[in-house]
Each structure stands twice: as C-alpha cells, then as structure tokens.
Write a structure and sequence with these properties.
about 20% strand; 3-stranded mixed sheet; alpha+beta; 11 helices; 3-stranded antiparallel sheet; globular
C-alpha cells in the first residue's frame, strides 16, 4: 500500500534512511543513558525484492553500542527488534503524513491491521577481526538488483526466465517487462543510496582526523546493565512513540510499576475486557501475587490495545499494571 509512494517519488527514499537513523539514535540513547553517546551506522536504501518486485527497504551496518567523548565505546544489550519495529513504523508513517503522501485515515487503517507490513530483522553480531564476515555483509548490502547467474534469456520467444535465490521457483518475464522491472530500480541522477551516520559520518570522521584521532583504537566497555534491567527501558521508547507514559496512572497521575508479565491467552482476554480501575479476582494473578490480589488494580489506557498488540481474538503480549 505504501510502496507506490516510493516508486513514483524516489526522493523520499532519503527520508526513509533518515527515519532509520532517528530510530537507532533514540534506541541507543535509551539503552546507553548519558551525554554525548554517538552510534555509527551505514544505511543502504534498496528497492528490489527477489523477483525484482518494488520493495523499498534499508540494510544497515550498525555498531552494537555507542561512542562517548574521550574515545570510549560502550557495548549495548542486544537490539529489541519488536520495539524498533514499532518505533520505525511510527517514524515512517509520520514522515509520509508530513509530506502529504497519506492521510490520518490511512494511518488509522494501517494501525488497525494485524500485520502492518513493517518488519525489523537483526542479524548476528560480527566480532572485531572477522574480516571475511564483514566483507560478505558489505557486499550483500550494496549488491545489484539482479543476478546474471539466475537469469536465462530465450531469444526465440523474447522471454527472460529468472530464478529465486534458493533456486526452488522461477518466473518468466516478457523481454520488455523485464527491462521495465530493471529500470524501476535504477537510481535517479545524483541520487545517493548509501549514507553514513553518527560516528561514521563525514563530519565526525573529519573532526577526528583534524584532532589526530582517526587511527585511535577506542576503549571497549562492556554493558553495565543486565538484560533484565535493560528491558525496563521499554517504557521510555513507548513514550517516544505514543507521546504518553504507559507507567503513569491516568486517574491519579502517580507512578505505576509492572507487577507481572502475562502470556496466557485466556487470562489476557479477561484483562482486555476490564474497564477503568476494575478490581481483579485472585485467579487473574500469578500464584505469588494471589494474596495481594485485593490490593492490586489495573487501568485501561486509551492506547493500550496498540501497546499490547491486541488484534482480534489474539493478543501477542500482555502486562499487568498496578499502582506502587
């Protein structure tokens, strides 16, 4: 639904790259609290899928942490793809809305879908010194739109047979149709497809070169937070997306705390039917909280259905909230 806007106006591909940069910056600022944190990223915008379908997306080479003033590099915890996906969706829709490509009704329609069409994938980390893995990944990021090895031209019929990456399926194109598909992925004159942000940007590299620090090896600091403590930062990112703090009580405006994480589908459905500040019965709580059930309350936030990814009869994730 959104791909056609990028097909007929390739200029917004640069805004797509900037949306990626904004997501990474906000994520690392949350994961690595402190002043002057600067991650590094190489973002390559691509528009083609397996059979040359127009599929705008970005490949990113990103540091697994951030650089601080003084040359120290602190490693962050593993990227939270679900949180990044929500943040990226928000940034892209906001950008298209600002550019007048879509309307508020389109945004509401997309937000109501069970699968929004947005996806964030994070591959494994590449350790320092693994030059072969770095080269293979870099070649994949800037690869061409098609492979000659997978293409077979039949001159008698003016047909092109193109095979998938796994060689398990193929598609036959008319010669002119094939040329049209190829041309749709040719960048416009002067169009920049690869951009460098943060620590890898030309500005940052120029400053280090001027200060004579270009060849300096940074001091690597391991993450100072456990995975459990790191996951608590989700509320800060949700606040950036929905512009409301999910841990602030809508009635007394006090600070709430997470008392349990609920994954049972039947229990979550019961939670989703409770209106503002309805009392909970003991069977809705884990055993360790059963004795405190009379003191616990739950509130229904207006945006909670989006936050908990409630879609139809299925609820992917649920969390019980209570006043401290």
């Amino acid at each position: 639904m959104l791909r056609r806007y990028f097909l007929y106006d390739r200029r917004i591909l640069s805004d797509l790259s900037r949306s990626v940069r904004a997501c990474l910056e906000e994520f690392f600022q949350t994961a690595l609290p402190g002043t002057g944190v600067e991650p590094g990223a190489v973002v390559a915008a691509q528009t083609f899928g397996d059979f040359l379908y127009f599929n705008p997306h970005c490949h990113i080479l990103c540091t697994d942490g951030g650089f601080f003033e003084g040359g120290a590099f602190r490693v962050a915890q593993a990227l939270e793809t679900e949180t990044l996906e929500k943040l990226f969706q928000h940034k892209v829709l906001k950008m298209l809305l600002r550019k007048g490509k879509i309307t508020e009704e389109v945004v509401k329609l997309i937000m109501s879908w069970r699968h929004s069409g947005f996806n964030v994938h994070c591959g494994p980390r590449i350790q320092p010194g693994d030059e072969e893995a770095m080269e293979n990944l870099a070649r994949y990021v800037v690869r061409a739109s098609f492979s000659q090895e997978r293409m077979t031209y039949i001159p008698e019929e003016s047909k092109v047979v193109y095979r998938s990456k796994d060689w398990k399926s193929e598609k036959t194109f008319d010669a002119l149709e094939w040329l049209a598909a190829m041309c749709s992925h040719v960048p416009s004159k002067g169009e920049q497809m690869v951009r460098y942000y943060g620590y890898y940007s030309n500005v940052s590299r120029g400053k280090r070169k001027k200060q004579g620090q270009e060849q300096c090896i940074p001091c690597i600091l391991e993450p100072d937070e456990s995975s459990r403590e790191y996951r608590k930062n989700w509320a800060r990112l949700i606040q950036k997306i929905y512009e409301v703090d999910p841990l602030t009580c809508p009635k007394c405006h006090g600070r709430m705390r997470v008392i349990s994480v609920i994954e049972d589908q039947d229990v979550i459905k019961k939670f989703s039917t409770i209106s503002v500040f309805g009392r909970l019965s003991p069977d809705l709580h884990p055993k360790r909280l059963a004795r405190q059930s009379r003191r616990n309350t739950i509130s229904t936030i207006p945006h909670l259905s989006s936050l908990l990814q409630i879609s139809g009869p299925r609820i992917k994730y649920g969390a019980g909230l209570g006043r401290p």
